[in-house]
Amino acid sequence: MSGPLRAILVGAFGALPRAILYLVLAALVVGIVFPIYYMFAGSLMGPADINTFPPSLVPHGLHLQNYQTVFDIIPLGQQYLNSIIMASVITIAQLTTATLAAYAFAFLRVPRKRLWFGLFLSTMMVPWEAIIIPNYLTMAEAGLINTYLALTLPFLATGFGTFLLRQSFLTFPQDLRDAAFIDGCGHLRFLAQILVPLQRPALAALGVFAFLGAWSQYFWPLLVTQSPQMQTIQIGISQLKSEDTNDPGSVMAGVVLAILPTLALVVFGQRFVVRGLFAGAVK
Amino acid sequence: MSQVKAAPAPRAGERAGVGDPARASSRRESMTALLFLAPSLLVFLAFVFYPLVRSLFLSVHANDIIGQPTRLVGLENYVAMLTGPEFRLVLWTTFWFAALTVVPSIAISLVLALLLSARVRGIRFFRTAFALPFAFSVATAAVVFSVLYNNVVGILNGLLFDLGLPGLNWLTDPGIALVSVAIATVWLQLGYDLLVLCAGLGAIPEDLYEAASLDGASGWRLARRITVPLLAPQLFFLIVVSTVQALQSFGQIYILTRGGPSNTTTTLVYSIYSRAFAFGSSDFGYASAEAVVLLVVVLVITAIQFGFLERRVFYQ
Predict the structure, then answer these.
(1) Across the interface, do B136 and A259 touch by the CB < 8 Å criterion?
(2) What is the set of domains in chain A, with CATH numbers?
(3) Can you tell me the ipTM of this complex?
(4) What gap in Å lies between CA B258 and CA B239, rounded to an integer?
């Protein structure tokens, strides 16, 4: 944002003394950043700092044992791996199924296309929590509780992602596609060698969106995992808290470890995150 | 490769004089299309449409102690739900929770977006600071807040103590537990709302402002007459999406309060969980009736959004 717009918006707040503007902003920054600050600070605090009243605002000394202790309470490494496996499988599968379906909707003659497309869109309207009981029963009946299959199977396709990619595919020049086919290109080759490389931004956005969504899931993994060894990091972290170890420092250390990848993404790859999140917002 | 010659362009078949080779190729194209749709359709069939039917089925059946449906009871589960005292509290809690999360997060982020669009030094710093909560999932945010809220050694009560104020039972006082859960949720939601609104602000064409300012409009008038109306799509989107999200909240309630104290944080989704899964409870019939209510509420809200989106996407 620059030039006249900025000047005019400054006008909108021109009446506000600068000092007040910064004061309001500073207050909001403190409010928003404080939990994050205290998560980091607390993860370095020993019981004398964080488990007494009133607790300390800053760590006295570095109590790095917290980061060791957390591995003793939950199998954090394994749970990390579980989360990565689950989120990767879901992301790759959604990209694949959505690309295929979006291709059909964007380019191919589909009998009753509107009906099928409506069916895909309708899946976006169903709240997952409203069908979680039957889905749980399906997994229980198939004996899949506590497996990677239970964690991933229901999320291998995405109505939203299909919609998103279709909108993006529709901008692909028809002439280019015709030319490729005249050169003897088949559907799959066209997809893999021409369309997908040219549609990388849309695919990346969907990928980030799918990965973050899968990574942060809570309700479903809570239901379909039983052993700590199969739980995802999200469940593990929350168990850490309910273990009631009287050890808030270790709990914070666990959260720090769980959050590092996404925090790095937000700080260093904000553009990707924004694009991924906006996949959901700006249609 | 003979078919390539026969049908130089697949769309030729769409025209009036349909030759046989063209028809064959179009049939093949339809087959390919269905094949491409099949993987998604299979997943939807197994994990969306079949469960929908089964939810309805479960909701009109009684069940035994391990949750097996026993006999058809018609609307009995619904009647029990709607006439029971519990459900009214659940609905009230659910909508109150939605209001407590949606309104503050959108209001705060709207003010923030407007503030940030003024000339502010260190805008990158502020942007990044406000975006940080993105990194958190519902679970990680809830766990951090549970430590902050701890009524014995929590830092929030510590700060109140430093100010000479009495501590609060953030999560165990029935009067404020829902607000505490909502605060954590607003914190988590704020950065997203802010980004959507900032993007909306950035997309407002500058010549609009120029034209308006040439006409003598300025300051708040511009903000009120141009900025906010032109942000209407983003605001509408945020209201719908975050309302639906609030209605579906589960993780933060499960982690922070388990629906307590005295059910004051038991929302619809938490109630479904506790009826169907908590403490070995397997009242799938009643829980499914609640799930159908959730479905209907969300469908109505999303249908409104879809009508709106359709207009934006296709007639923009």
Answers:
(1) yes
(2) 3-70 (no CATH), 74-243 (1.10.3720.10)
(3) 0.88
(4) 26
